[in-house]
Design brief:
Blueprint lengths: L4 H15 L7 H8 L1 H28 L6 H8 L2 H38 L3 H17 L4 H4 L1 H19 L18 H9 L5 H9 L7 H27 L8 H42 L4 H17 L5 H30 L12 H24 L1
Helix pairs in contact: 1-8, 1-10, 1-11, 2-3, 2-9, 2-11, 3-9, 3-11, 3-14, 4-5, 4-14, 5-6, 5-12, 5-13, 5-14, 6-12, 6-13, 8-11, 8-12, 9-14, 12-13, 14-15
């Protein structure tokens, strides 16, 4: 007999594993640019907004018969054209995420290995991408099966950083506020909290018997993630303040020493490799099953695009995750809101009452995402 709490706890762990990633490493820098208080406010507001979006999608998942993923839900409720827009946003968002992971992995490996072998962070990024590409080609699906280990490793890494940082915190680092940089945390936060596609997976994990637990799972998991992000950012900004680096660890190593460097970079690299493989395999299967590409062709497109973007000079970590979060995350957020709005208009809710988010809230969220997309694109064009 399955303990009634087991599906709930498994679903919470799965959602945390599907959202927490390298985006969190960009939060301290973004917060330091705008000011910790301003960044914290944005994190809580955007986190609450994304929680609403996930609850909307959860309601769509519960009320729609059959087993679907985000792309198909958009096709059902918004239309075939927008289904392809969703698919493209997912593909480009995944490539952007892989590029960000490639950058962070290069920094980690450089910090770990350069004292022995020398070399530049870029060289280590290429080395990481080559190794990960070989593993993705082999279709090593075991990466998805070590999800709990990845979550445990990330939680240990964050806990280690927070505890190591506490004695060195300078409270004066929390005081500055820079309104001119108020938009910097927006896209980074969206990237760090991205993971809308995990919600349909939770329906399968919970099963019909525990389907009503979907909303409590989303609220619990998002609450824990936000708490983790607040503690992590509080610790890092408290130590490095205005000198907080884009890659976090480069700024922390001088303060926390060699043991910190070895533990965090080794554990971080292994975790990033696993998540990078999950991204790659998921996109590989998308190309194979949704675009009907052969394995070799699909693998080539999955792996070559991040490497090509890196070669072309896209190496600003904050800029990349900010763009991916603001634009591709914003597009997916708008489409989820439209799915929910369309479902409510059709009167599909039969099993139980729908979560009653009013129409003005739905359109407000769509408006916020739209402004974020336009602002990010205009900012890039004006640079």
């Amino acid at each position: 007999m399955v303990h009634p709490n087991r599906p709930f706890l498994r679903a919470v762990g799965m959602m945390i594993g599907g959202i927490v990633g390298v985006g969190v490493f960009g939060l301290p820098y973004a917060f330091a640019q705008g000011g910790f208080a301003l960044g914290l406010l944005e994190l809580l507001v955007i986190g609450g907004m994304l929680m609403v979006m996930q609850l909307m999608l959860g309601e769509v998942v519960v009320q729609t018969p059959g087993h679907h993923r985000l792309v198909n839900y958009v096709g059902i409720y918004v239309g075939r054209f927008w289904k392809w827009v969703t698919l493209l946003a997912f593909c480009f968002g995944t490539w952007g995420a892989m590029l960000a992971y490639m950058l962070v992995a290069g920094t980690f490996l450089h910090l770990l290995l350069s004292p022995l072998f020398g070399g530049s962070p870029a060289a280590y990024s290429y080395l990481f991408a080559a190794l990960a590409s070989l593993l993705i080609f082999g279709g090593l699906k075991f990466a998805a099966r070590v999800e709990y280990l990845v979550v445990a490793a990330l939680l240990f890494l964050f806990t280690f950083i927070v505890l190591a940082s506490l004695p060195l915190i300078d409270v004066s680092h929390y005081a500055p506020v820079h309104l001119e940089n108020a938009f910097v945390p927006y896209g980074v936060i969206l990237f760090a909290l991205a993971g809308m596609g995990i919600v349909p997976e939770l329906k399968d994990v919970l099963g019909k018997k525990h389907g009503r637990l979907l909303a409590p799972v989303i609220i619990t998991a998002m609450g824990l993630i936000l708490l983790l992000y607040v503690l992590f950012t509080f610790a890092v900004v408290g130590v490095t303040g205005p000198e907080t680096s884009e890659m976090v660890f480069e700024g922390l190593v001088p303060h926390l020493g060699e043991t910190f460097r070895v533990v965090t970079t080794l554990l971080g690299t292994l975790t990033i490799l696993s998540i990078y493989m999950m991204f790659g395999i998921e996109l590989l299967n998308t190309f194979k099953f949704d675009f009907d590409l052969r394995h070799n062709t699909a693998w080539f497109f999955v792996c070559v695009v991040p490497i090509l973007l890196f070669t072309l000079g896209l190496r600003e970590f904050i800029g990349i995750i900010g763009f991916v979060g603001s634009v591709f995350g914003g597009v997916l957020g708008i489409l989820v809101a439209l799915c929910y709005w369309s479902m409510r208009r059709r009167g599909i809710c039969r099993t139980h009452h729908c979560i009653n988010f009013p129409a003005p809230l739905t359109w407000l969220i769509i408006g916020i995402f739209s402004v974020g997309i336009v602002w990010e694109v205009v900012t890039i064009l004006l640079k």
